Amino acid sequence: MLNSSWLIYGASGYTAGLIIEAALKRGHQPILAGRSLDTVLPIATQHQLSYKIFSCQGEHAAHAITQQLDQVAVVLNCAGPFEDTADTLQQACIKAGCHYLDITGEMAVLAQSLTLHDAAREHGVAIISGIGFDVVPTDILASEARRLAPDADALELAFAGADRKTAEQAGGISPGTSKTMLRMMPEGGKLRRNAEITTVALAEIAKFVQFADKRRFCMTIPWGDLVTAYHSAGFDNIAVYTEVSPQQAKWMKRLTPVVKLFKFSSLQRLFDRMIDKYVSGPDQAAMDSACMQLSAEASKQGQCQLRLFAECDEGYAFTAKSALYFVESLLAQKIMPGAYTPSQAIEPSEIIEMLDIQLTVQNIQEGTHEN
């Protein structure tokens, strides 16, 4: 690989800020990049880091960006919604011969990334989308579920933000996540059934899901594992749940008739401005006091074979740690060229150890637990 220089695109975003702080503590000097000098320059000046300004929009954007990536080993894309940035940056990275990472959970982006395997391998680069909380811990659970239940034909994944002391629901979302969620809402809920992704109404499927500590009320969401768990673990039937209150689920159902309005670009721009003004993401105290709990259930013909429970850092804190881990793995040339899900790129056992994912296996048939 060329050298140890790497670049963060979308450097002015909430999650990028966490990654920059973590990178500086580990002695990195990442190049900061984005489309606006007004937002990138103050951050670069504050941390005494070099910067680049370029946009992912326009017919010739990929070609122009390629010129900006000379002597860059890794691009970490933190600029969501990623449907607006990922494809252009990926094409530029392939042409420039540098690795590409992003922290998306958007299904369309994850699916598109995996189609680039041959092109990435031919040019000697790795393309890995979803290297944050979306979707590293859940991809690990899917991979482990397949390893431990090789005959299972269905997988249910669930996650919840929880206060470390009380186990009550906790957490917040960043501006970028908020914008992505609004764009996804008109598409409804998603499931994978018989290998095909199907659409269901928002909050149509809601139930209590067993976690390590208690049962939590959850609803299905269009999470990235509907793509990644299919590719990394070979499950043809996948559902992903997140904790909500029963009242929240009811409101989501009531919104179903109007969410299609969110497709209009004028409304998207209005909501984007409101999000930028009023949404800031969780502060350090909120991240320190929270964790993420995860659950996976593998079944065959409707009969549960095993459950896996996991716990990791709060989602944004985990994303910062995970993103830096994948950057360092690429700089150390530990990942082969090609396009991968996180659990395909790096051995799951190593990810579990390095990112401090606490994993427990419950064998339903034998009634045993294993840490």
| Total count of helical runs of at least 4 residues | 15
Report how far the terminal alpha carbons are from each other: 38 Å
The geometry reads as globular
The helicity comes to 25-40%
Low confidence ranges = none
Indicate the radius of gyration in whole angstroms.
20 Å
Q: How many E-type strands?
A: 17
Q: Which range does the strand content fall in? A: 25-35%
Q: What would you call the structural class? A: alpha/beta
Strand order of the largest sheet: 10-11-12-7-13-14-16-17
Q: What integer is the average pLDDT?
A: 89
Major sheet characteristics: 8 strands, mixed
Q: Keywords for this structure?
A:
371 residues; alpha/beta; eight-stranded mixed sheet; seven-stranded parallel sheet; 17 strands
Describe, in plain words, how this protein is organized in 3D.
The longest helix is centred in the C-terminal third of the chain and has 17 residues, at 315-331. The strands form 3 sheets. The chain has an 8-stranded mixed β-sheet. Strands 3-2-1-4-5-6-15 form a 7-stranded parallel β-sheet, with helices on both faces. The chain has 371 residues and is α/β, with parallel strands linked by helices. It has helices at 14-25, 37-47, 61-68, 86-96, 107-114, 117-122, 136-148, 175-184, 225-232, 246-255, 265-278, 284-289, 315-331, 342-345, 348-354, and strands spanning 6-9, 31-34, 51-53, 74-77, 99-102, 126-128, 154-163, 189-193, 196-200, 206-210, 215-220, 237-243, 290-300, 303-313, 338-340, 358-363, 368-370. It has 15 helices and 17 strands.
